[in-house]
Amino acid sequence: MSELTSGNLFGFLLTDTSRLFRQTFEKMTAENGVGLTPGEIRALGYVIRFSGARQTVLAEQMGVEPMTLSAYLDRLEARGLIARRMDPGDRRAKLIEPTEEAARVMLELDPVFERLYGQVTQGLTKEQMEVLAAGLRTIRANLTTDPRVMAPFSLLPTGAEHRDAVRAT
Predict the structure, then answer these.
(1) pTM
(2) Average pLDDT of the chain, as a whole number
(3) Which label site among 12, 31, 75, 116 has the fewest CB atoms less than 10 Å from its CB?
(4) Domain total for the chain?
(5) CA 87, CA 92: separation in Å to the nearest integer?
C-alpha cells in the first residue's frame, strides 16, 4: 500500500490543506477594503464562474444551503454586483449574472489574491506548481464529469473587459 493511501493520509492532506487554505483566504479577504465578507467574495466568484446559472445550481456548486447563498446574493445585488433575472424556462427560478461592477471589484481584490497565492506557493518551483495543478485537475476530473466544473475560467476580466474595468477604477 502506498504511503499516501495508508491510513488515508492523502485524504487527510487534501482535506486539511483545503481547510487551511480557506482559513487563510478568509483572513486575508476579511479586511479587503471593498466591504465584502469572505462568503460574499466566494459567492461572487461562483457567480462569475457559473454566470447565468440558477441560484440552486450555485448553492450546490458552492456546497452551501440555498438560504445561505440567497443572503449573500441579496447583499451582492444591493451593491450592484449581480443581477437576478427570471429563467425563461421556469418563471419561479432566477438566473444570476455578474455586473460590470463585479469585474471592477475583482480587479480591486486581485492584489489580495496575489498575496494569498504567494503565501501558499512559497517554496514551490514553477514546475512543482504545474505538476500539482495538473494532479489536482486529474483528481477533480475523477470526481466529476460536470463540464461546468471542468471548464477553464478566470475571475478577472480579460481583453477589452479588462481595459474597461481598469479605466473605470
Answers:
(1) 0.79
(2) 86
(3) 31
(4) 1
(5) 7
